Structures are given as structure tokens and as C-alpha cells.
Here is the input.
Amino acid sequence: MLLGGLRYLLPVIEAAHKEGYYVITCDYLPDNIAHQFSDEYCNVSIIDKEAVLKKAQELKIDGILSFAVDPGVVTAAYVAEKMRLPFAGSYESVKILQNKDLFRDFLTKNNFNVPVSGGYADFETAVKDLKRFSFPLIVKPTDSAGSKGVMRIDSPCELPKAFAHALDNSISGKVIIEEFIEKEGCSSDTDCFSIKGKLVLTTFSAQRFDNEAANPYTPSAYSWPSTFTLEQEQYLTSELQRLITLLNLKTSIYNIETRIGKNGKPYIMELSPRGGGNRLAEMIRYATKEDMITACVRAAVGDEIGELKTVTYDGHWAEVILHSDSEGKFESISISPEYEKYVHEIDLWVVPGEIVHSFRGANDAIGTLVLKFPSQSILDNVLKSISKWCNINVVSDEKNK
Here is the structure.
């Protein structure tokens, strides 16, 4: 059973079918694209863990995943535990990982590098607690993904708007406030894999942002290898292994966000037992030939995975998250001819005439570009000026009126 119906599930469904598995997709949106490719669809909200459990028991499933679908991870852990199915870890451990407030508390208690933070259900308590923090701050829901509801604030007067925005995007009705860690180089958002509690495949990316986007905290591009030093990657790998051991995690793919602060400290910002969105596991498969997608599908039903090993990158790879800077009707994408030689794949999710939105979250993406470069310097130069060579042509709402 796959929770959710987003297009990020398509390679998972393809991998499952290649392995001979019957795939059931589950959410409350029957028009989601993944349901067109699964063998069966059931209409149940993925955040209703009891309803999903009842359906899973009726269907006698052999495994459950919430790949790239953050809201379903806790439900998947709950169902797996109740039905004694393979999963990354216990329901309690997964709840810690999936709740930003609980996760920060766990990191603090176990002496990881962690920003000062606090979780709040009401604005008044947050205001009273503000003296604990040093600006700038990040305000976000404790339980959302895809950068939804996230705002940076630089003064107390900005808190009311940011708090309300985060609360509107929270499933549980709770907001986390944390000190913003000014990063050195690029942060990393990528996927890793453990087998029987041992981290066997670790990757780090260079996560990039569009400062001109409606939400400048939504990732707009990724590249591999990362901008971290070897020593920083080794330290973070050791800390990730320590975290996996402390939570008694087992066999799973993980979406992991890390960064190096300007203070020189490496930070684990998030670790979620799921594949990441934005096709991250697919990108790693392009760049390293290591197939975490098939591995997590096999792990979900308890089959042997085979070997996954430390990565060696086949060149310099990047992914651009295609998006519009304005609301309107999509017309076309145009890439300057001199840059076409770097394009490995264009994956466009919209058709001419379709309404697109400005880039406020991952759900506003309209496709991806997969790029390969002969050197790091060429990659860096090309990614510095994406808007100069890759144009998303949109007829704005004003012109439509």
C-alpha cells in the first residue's frame, strides 16, 4: 500500500511492478495521477490512521510506504506496527522524527547540534517566550513538508503574520519557532539508506534557492556532489548513524536535511523515514547508479534488498525545479541553445493553457530539468543564472483580463 497519489510515486509504482508486487494507492483525492498507474485505489484520508489501518487489514497488505508524502509517514508507521509489517522503526520513534518540535527536543537531550527552538499552539505563549530567541527566526508548522507555511522573521513585529501563516498550514495546530542558522555554502537535502540499523548509503547535495520566488525558502535546484568538505560529511554521517541507533531504526530510505552553520557547526535539520520529494532518489540513481527506490519497495514487504554501497558520482549532476514567478496560463518552456548540451531530461508536468501559480511551495512546481556537467565550475556557473537561459513563458492574469 502506497499512501498518497502524487507523481513522485510513479517511479515507486514502476519499481514495485517490476518486482511483481500488486500496488494499492490510498488517499482522499481520486484524481491524483498515481492512482492511474496503481492496481487498485482506495479513498481514505492518509492522516486518518485508524481508517487506513482498517482498510489495510481488509486488503491484507504485505507492506506500506509513504514515499515522498510527509503527512502519511506516521500513519504508515502506525499501520505497520499494528499489522506487524516491516517498517523503518517503531511508531513512537517515527512520531519523534515527523514532529519538528519533538525532534528538536530529542536532538537537544542527546547533545546534537541544534538551534534554539520551541513549539507553540497559541500566539500569546509564543510572544511571551520570544525573549529566549535571537533574531532572525524561522516560523513554520511542526508537521508540514514542501516548505508550506514557512517564513523568516527579523523582528517581533513580523511574528503575528508568520505565526498565523504557519498555523494555517499545520495539521496538528502547532507551530515551531527556531533560530535561523545562517549557512556556510549550500545546505543539503537528499536521500540516504540504512539496512538493519546501519547507514549503508549516505549522500549529500547542494540545495539551492530562488531568492526572487514568492517563497524564497522553497528549494529550486539541487546538485551533487555537495559543497561540504569531506570532514564535514564524515562528521554528519557519524551523527546520522548515532541518531538512527538512538531511535532503533532499521531498514529504510530517509530524506535528510543538513547544513553547516557560519559558526562552523554541522546540523541535522530533519530526518524523515521516507523518500524525498523533488525526485531526489531518482537523481541519486542517475548520478550514482544506486537504486534506493527498488530497495525501499523490497524492504517494505520484507524481501532481501541486495547491496547498496557508498556512492561514487558519475560526473556532476543537477536538478532544476521548474516554476513560474507569476500566476497565469502556461505557454511554453524555452532553453537557450548553448545550454541544451547539459540537459539530460526535461520532465514537464503542465500543458499549454494550464493555470500555474507563483512558487510558494513544492506543490507549485511545474516540472524538473535533469542536467549533467563535465565539471563543478561549469555546474556552478550555469546554476547561478538559471533564469537567463531557462524561461518559463506564462501569460499573466492581467493579460487574460
Q: What stands out?
A: The domain at 2-85 is CATH 3.40.50.20 (Rossmann fold). The chain has three domains: 2-85, 116-179, 188-400. The longest helix spans residues 230-246. The first strand starts at residue 2 and ends at 3.
